[in-house]
Amino acid sequence: MTVGVCYFPEHWPRQRWERDIEQMAEAGLEYVRMAEFSWGRIEPERGQFDFEWLDEAIELIGDHGMEVILCTPTATPPKWLVDERPEILQEDPDGTVREFGSRRHYCFNSPAYREETERIVTRMAERYADNPHVAGWQTDNEYGCHETVRCYCADCSNAFSEWLADRHGDVDALNEAWGTTFWSQQYPDFEAVEPPGPTPAEHHPSRLLAYYRFASDSVVEYNRLQTEILREINDDWLVTHNFMGHFSTLDAYDVAGDLDLVSWDSYPTGFVQDRREAEATVEELRAGDPDQVGLNHDIYRGALEQPFWVMEQQPGDVNWPPHAPQPADGAMRLWAHHAVAHGGDAVLYFRWRRCRQGQEQYHAGLRKQDGSPDRGYADASTAAEELFDLGPVDAPVALLHSYENLWATNIQPHAPEFDYWTHAGTYYRALRRRGVQVDVVPPERDLDGYAAVVAPTLYLLDDALATRLEAYVEDGGQLLIGARSGEKDPYNKLPDALQPGPLAGLVGATVAQHESLPEQVPTRVGYGGDEYEYRTWAEWLDADDATVQGRHRSGPADGQAAVVDAERGRGRVTYCGVWPGRELADALVGDLLERAGVTTHAPLPDGVRIAERDGHVWVTNFTDAPVSVDVPGGAAWIVGHERVGAYDVGVLEGTLGDVTVTRENSEP
Amino acid sequence: MTVGVCYFPEHWPRQRWERDIEQMAEAGLEYVRMAEFSWGRIEPERGQFDFEWLDEAIELIGDHGMEVILCTPTATPPKWLVDERPEILQEDPDGTVREFGSRRHYCFNSPAYREETERIVTRMAERYADNPHVAGWQTDNEYGCHETVRCYCADCSNAFSEWLADRHGDVDALNEAWGTTFWSQQYPDFEAVEPPGPTPAEHHPSRLLAYYRFASDSVVEYNRLQTEILREINDDWLVTHNFMGHFSTLDAYDVAGDLDLVSWDSYPTGFVQDRREAEATVEELRAGDPDQVGLNHDIYRGALEQPFWVMEQQPGDVNWPPHAPQPADGAMRLWAHHAVAHGGDAVLYFRWRRCRQGQEQYHAGLRKQDGSPDRGYADASTAAEELFDLGPVDAPVALLHSYENLWATNIQPHAPEFDYWTHAGTYYRALRRRGVQVDVVPPERDLDGYAAVVAPTLYLLDDALATRLEAYVEDGGQLLIGARSGEKDPYNKLPDALQPGPLAGLVGATVAQHESLPEQVPTRVGYGGDEYEYRTWAEWLDADDATVQGRHRSGPADGQAAVVDAERGRGRVTYCGVWPGRELADALVGDLLERAGVTTHAPLPDGVRIAERDGHVWVTNFTDAPVSVDVPGGAAWIVGHERVGAYDVGVLEGTLGDVTVTRENSEP
Amino acid sequence: MTVGVCYFPEHWPRQRWERDIEQMAEAGLEYVRMAEFSWGRIEPERGQFDFEWLDEAIELIGDHGMEVILCTPTATPPKWLVDERPEILQEDPDGTVREFGSRRHYCFNSPAYREETERIVTRMAERYADNPHVAGWQTDNEYGCHETVRCYCADCSNAFSEWLADRHGDVDALNEAWGTTFWSQQYPDFEAVEPPGPTPAEHHPSRLLAYYRFASDSVVEYNRLQTEILREINDDWLVTHNFMGHFSTLDAYDVAGDLDLVSWDSYPTGFVQDRREAEATVEELRAGDPDQVGLNHDIYRGALEQPFWVMEQQPGDVNWPPHAPQPADGAMRLWAHHAVAHGGDAVLYFRWRRCRQGQEQYHAGLRKQDGSPDRGYADASTAAEELFDLGPVDAPVALLHSYENLWATNIQPHAPEFDYWTHAGTYYRALRRRGVQVDVVPPERDLDGYAAVVAPTLYLLDDALATRLEAYVEDGGQLLIGARSGEKDPYNKLPDALQPGPLAGLVGATVAQHESLPEQVPTRVGYGGDEYEYRTWAEWLDADDATVQGRHRSGPADGQAAVVDAERGRGRVTYCGVWPGRELADALVGDLLERAGVTTHAPLPDGVRIAERDGHVWVTNFTDAPVSVDVPGGAAWIVGHERVGAYDVGVLEGTLGDVTVTRENSEP
User: Fold this and answer.
1) pLDDT (tens digit, 9 = 90+) per residue, B518-570?
2) Interface contact flag, A282 C520, Cβ < 8 Å
3) Which of B40, B361, B369 minimises the CB distance to A185?
4) Which position among B142, B283, B404, B539 bears the catalytic label?
5) Is the pLDDT of residue C348 over 80?
6) Best of C361, C363, C379, C647 to disrupt the B interface by mutation (most B CBs within 10 Å)?
7) Could you say which of A43, A142, A404, A612 is catalytic?
8) The domain C397-596 is classified under which CATH number: 3.40.50.880, 3.10.310.40, 3.90.1150.10, 3.90.1640.10?
9) Nearest CA of chain C to the CA of B200: how many Å?
10) Do A397-596 and A608-663 share a fold?
11) Quick one: average pLDDT of C83-105?
């Protein structure tokens, strides 16, 4: 387990570099990422290359015993290139060009930009082909950041038509698959299908979904262009890309298929402010929400089912969220441990030093702009010292996540509050409250090894997936399926059969009605002898081959079935037709884990999490109050001790079942 | 009184049609509307027509004893037509083209589209000229939906210049009428007057009003193009158009002049969510607001002063409002009765069957997508059975409504909350709380037969209208005029005289000051010995030939006159210079009806309404609590009985004066 | 001290003029402003001039003993000119043209418009070169109103490149000054630097600041074009421009350098609604906020350090804020006195008569549209009678205000609530609560005469300014510096040194951390033995050569220094690293004034203000409750008496130290 940092030697005078790099080494850092926005520095005008500065920086890093992750600099084509070939720029749906002056101002489908990409990546990779200090490459930087996955330019229009022709062969097949005999939306040929521009009313949901798939595939294809060049030049390099948190327009699983390693950029106190429904608490403003961060760790670990890296770890206050509170003392260390507990193998802080120029002057580094240590520096050093080598995480539970379901429910949320991530997060949080490790994987993944599987929503569904889930249950799997599953076919049309469509046989019930409800409507269900709140979404179930475990107790739905379950072969499947409130999610997940025989902790306090990895248990405390860790028979503490203070961490040898965590002074 | 349905045979396999149509007949349906978005199916490429599918569907419907309303398919020009003649597309004010991919993507003023319209309407009408099962036609579909009345393309610019030249003759006359000697806005010629595009500051109110009038007139002209073709081909056809609820950009009275029948599309639980100021209550989310729906019934009945149709009646949950709660049990039947009580002669549910493809998959039908009955099916069947033939509604009161006043107050609301519909609705609701039938008619309508007239606002006013209102009162009419009346001349300029301008003689007072007030300001007036709240708008009146009936009791207005009245000949006129709160509106309307000798009920509970039509009384209960109906001497019940349950209806023989309705368990 | 009015004879029939002008004279008015939007009337088509109407109006005004301020009519180029030379129109960042139909639809950098401007200004000025009744000129009208300072057209792009070339000489110097080696933003030449258009992510802060400076400079240059023509034709004319309240995109100090007189347009009850963070109270809706208005008076007085004019004074209800409450009785008189107390020499009401046409029909005048007196007429007459001649204001305190700091903090507020005006207003209000006159001046101004100086924020800072502030303190000055000072260099980059950069020596401390905090986070500091709230912004200070006067008492900052001070030579400097709440601002400012030996009043009640000018004291009461004025030894009252009623004013001979004002019935 290692710690590293992101460094921009091009921002500082050359005479400063040696001291910077010495200080990195003193802190115990092992990796330095560089060059992701350096095209304008490397090639100040067409064909005039200047690599000497980068050669020297790499050499110095190597001299200090560290390794370099280089980046292809394609996220920022320089001005001379934009002026020469303006067709590389992206366009908004209404044709407005996204101009030069920030970053990510290129179209993934631009033939001109692919040509330029090939040229610069080849040149750069060849330069460092034999450099012993370069461990690997990050392609580009945060694909899709600033809403750039979906572009609406003429190149995209052509590429979309071709992509559709490849998938459907014949335009009649497309018309049939989408169902265009609605509002006279039949297409005469593939060329007639354009990116979805401004229209008087909403778009056809099948067209939108196809465009979202196409746009994501365009990034996959663009990334593959880079990975193939890199691999061809030096097949030993580790090739990665740095994904983002709760990112919604790009299928990370698809991109990951072309990578050796998945990494992502983690900014806990930013995420609680700008990508979550609930307002951040004061504690969350100081250290983030462990489950929000954890869900992303588990997605990116799940992508290749192997350890991930945090390529950018928040180092202190940052510039882009609405507010920039100072993190709690120790938070920067806590985050490194939390990442490792979730299966991270390396944590690189972004950035080494606060930048004096440009858009990120309000983003802290491990060092201040004058070079003196900032608050994160000691945390990073401590983490580097404390972390040790570990095997991978072994998760007993899988949570099924699919970008296509995210896109399709976004296209027709049917309620302003129906947010895919928040709904899935309800189930994820219930699992994590029990201390259980969770692989977040796509529905197509082999589920054999999992004692239990939670599918918050399987919105788009075909027979093949239904058959695989049936087999999982028949073979003894414990499956919990959430609302809106089986609503649509893969082209975003309703199937002939009532919801859950191909899953109806497995579930033993169909959805008689669904409704979406605003906050002012009372929403209650009974389950297991208790009454619970739910929110936003309700289905009324007709159980024909299942046991009713919960019934509605409010509104016109009163008395209708809401939760059913059924034994199938050696397993059991539960279908929950509402978006459960927190307590109902706890009850459903608790019952699932119990019948699956998964070891759990009693429900943990908010902000306190435990996690097991390779014979060690992490207790991470994201709150302002200390917790006590009780280990009958005594604990072997690697980090910390039985009292884990505010924003502190403890690591001990053992397994989840050995440990009991309680908040001090809490009621018994 | 009949019930029908909207059907899309083109969405389903031909082998299903016979069963669908049998089930319609079994439910007692009598009309089937079809083909309003079928252009792409009828003419898949230019000049290649396929009418056989429609022929067959019509034949089957006729075979089952039902009649067909066909629609011209012009709301959705197909893609091949758009690609051939892209100039038919609408444009936003900033020039953004509204592209293909939804519906209503054509400009009413496009010569190209008028040519295509003529071609397709003629072809289709000729096809069915002698078909005995086709009872009539709906032109297009929901003119103006998705903000499409106002277009800003080059064709519109030319047409606007011509429209202005026709009205003003000479550009100097336009400059004088609008008052362009303000901010140097003089126009050198008619060509120089363009649709109102993006400008640094707000537009000239006279130019805006002219553009809104022109845009509405363009739809009237376009619709007339269709009605003339239809009438020429078969003069026996019933020609209608389906208007929308609370629709604000098109003058429905003007369009109605070219129709035989006015119909509209009623979605009660959608309307309470997306076109009303107040947040919907839980009961309203389940059944709608009877006064919001009723105001529309009364507008469309008033348009031709004859019974209307509901061409689309909500059948269950729908896709377009923010939330999609399931309607209460029985609500779909309640709505049919409520429409009939307000003078509806037919109610067609939209749609027969939930659609599997395209934008409306989340819109229920009477049958589910698998063909099984949905919640509305039984309600529709029951309504079909219960309804019986009736003469027209005879309303003792008129409420004056004018689209030009709506546009002009929207242009200069002078307070964010000054909404024309909400203000007019305050008076309408007070009338309906007394069980009184109300014709909602334009101010130009002959008022002779009405015992009382309420004019919530007569914002734009000329001498001719003032003279007619004077005559109405002199002849014994009882008139109640609301705030902001007589503020402007018909070109949206202030008149020379102080407000209410030409009405000052009739009213006997002028407006000394007006003010608009945010919620935090106390707003009180005294009236008839009590003190009341008002909201948003206040006028301070100078009464020179009127009696002060109410005075301000707050703010700088304290002590100023707020409500005045005056006898004139055999009648009386009241002017209310504030936007009354609910209680003040009740008091003003109660006093008006009493002096007009109109039979009323005591103020009804919210959500409970009674209405008299042709010797029968309807009691419609839009609430969750039952009500009791007391008829001294006994009642002859046609539907239901003296206890009308939640979301239920009772119909008895008699008149308004015979009936007393009370909420059970309410305080005496 | 005189009163005047704005008049539009072109809006009224000629036969009315004489009576209007007589009534002005009867009211005691002395100045009449005219013609600011008259281009279309003066030149109805190219080269056809009609000045006779204006000649006649001026003659009539002169005949009645009043003087005329004429305006150049350039704010509204007529339609024929726009049609002939459409390139004069402004463009939005996305290229949308701001079209004809309102006002201010021209680009300051358009060579075509500068040519037309020269032509019309010359022609008009020559016409009245020898007219004895024309006292002077207002250039254009409210430069920049409706967000028109910043334009994005091709002319602006060229002008921006030239402006940059003039400032930097060499593009490498620009790249160095801005720091473009960030996200590959290096520019190959000056032509490549365009106005900031739509980009995927935020713009480079140095580029934005340069564009804002350039845009402001463009207005300065455009205004100079006009003032030079006017001065050349008649050097005796008074040349002014009417600025706006809380106006943020134009550097008024720069424009003022080319004027003889600074005037501005004051709309107190509009400003509390549309340019302030806090919701308006009921009293403020009736009379405005004296400190909000006062800050503007003091900026425009400070601009040339001489008396200013109110060129447009709100006359009653106005059309443009969200709501239009009627001002309190007497408010129009109160505002005139308040302006004079702050150093105003003339107050012209806008407008004479409510306009019947165009965009401002809902804007009151001193007369109603029918010519009868409106509420403001008596107030204006009374004010004209009461006001008398006075010498200038002598302020003991300066508050430093800089448009560049405003722009730069707007570019990177780092918290949605960080508003420059609100932050500066916190300190300004604390000063005014003590009855102290304040010059609001740019940081470059000579500070020698001031006993105390408050700098709410000195965000952009260079060594020269730091040296001048050091000298001020060394020489005995008392200086209070607020948060975010010295964060940036003049190009909007971080300096090498930690904040406050070049001020660190004077202050004796550096900023260890800063953070921005949303409302839900507790924010407390101790100061002088008490605990206070702060808001939005916190700095943690390292004091190496200063005394810690206040420490944080909340969050991770707990215990860190928040307020420090230090003696330097004969003076003292305080640095406050938080945005103080009202009470902390009172404490800081009170301590500052005390040590500076400035005479103050005890903290005044909200809405009650006193001000001293030339041996007289004004007591202005913007509240609904009367106040008592106690003057030991008796007062010589010029206006009013010792009881100043609601929205009333008292003027007496004396100085601030003589007077004690208390709210009646307030607790002792």
Assistant:
1) 999 999 999 999 999 999 999 999 999 999 999 999 999 999 999 999 999 99
2) yes
3) B40
4) B142
5) yes
6) C361
7) A142
8) 3.40.50.880
9) 6
10) no
11) 98
**Residue boundaries of the structural domains of chain B:** 2-147+237-386, 397-596, 608-663
Q: Does the model's pTM come out above 0.95?
A: yes
The catalytic residue positions of C are 142, 312
Burial class (CB in 10 A: 0-12, 13-18, 19+), C293: buried
Confidence of residue C666 (pLDDT cuts 50, 70, 90): low
Convert the pLDDT of each residue in C512-568 to its tens digit: 999 999 999 999 999 999 999 999 999 999 999 999 999 999 999 999 999 999 999
Residue C160 and residue C162: Cα distance in Å, rounded?
A: 5
Name all chains with 3 or more CB-CB pairs below 8 Å to chain C. A, B
| B322 neighbors A518 (Cβ within 8 angstroms) | yes
How do residues B372-402 score in pLDDT, each as one tens digit?
999 999 999 999 999 999 999 999 999 999 9
Mean pLDDT (chain A) is 97
* Chain A hits for C517, Cβ within 8 Å: 285, 323, 325
Looking at residue C668, its pLDDT comes to 44
Per-residue pLDDT reduced to its tens digit, B18-39: 999 999 999 999 999 999 999 9
Polymer length of chain B: 668
Residue pair C538/C517 in contact (Cβ under 8 Å)? The answer is yes
Out of C145, C323, C372, closest to residue B516 by CB: C323
- Choose, from A67, A312, A470, A612, the residue flagged as catalytic: A312
Helix (H, G, I), strand (E, B) or coil at A164: helix
> Which chain C residues are within 8 Å of B197, Cβ to Cβ?
97, 99, 101
Distance separating alpha carbons of residues B489 and B507, to the nearest angstrom: 17
Residue B190 gets which letter from DSSP? G
Query: How many beta-carbon pairs below 8 A join chains A and C?
Result: 170
**Cα B251–Cα B256–Cα B262 angle in degrees, nearest 5:** 115
Which residues of chain B lie closer than 8 angstroms to C124, CB-CB? none
CATH number of C2-147+237-386: 3.20.20.80
Mutate which of C199, C524, C544 to disrupt the A interface (most A C-beta within 10 Å)?
Answer: C199
Q: Which residue, chain included where needed, has tokens 């986070």?
A: C521
Q: Do A113 and A106 touch, CB atoms closer than 8 A? A: yes
Residue of chain B minimizing CA distance to C317: B515
Mutate to test the interface with B, among A182, A203, A523 (most CBs of B within 10 A): A182
Q: Environment class of residue B397 by beta-carbon count within 10 Å: exposed (0-12), middle (13-18) or buried (19+)?
A: buried
Do A272 and A280 meet the contact criterion of CB atoms below 8 Å apart? Answer: yes
Task: Report pLDDT digits (tens) over A541-554.
Answer: 999 999 999 999 99
Where chain B has pLDDT below 50, the residues are: 667-668
Does C94 contact A96 at a Cβ distance shorter than 8 Å? yes
CB C301 within 8 A of CB C293: no
Contacting chains of B (3 CB pairs or more, <8 Å) are A, C
Nearest residue in chain A measured CA to CA from B646: A556
Based on C-alpha coordinates, what's the Rg of chain C? 26
β-pair type (C660-663, A649-653) = unpaired
Q: Domain A608-663: which topology? A: Immunoglobulin-like (2.60.40)
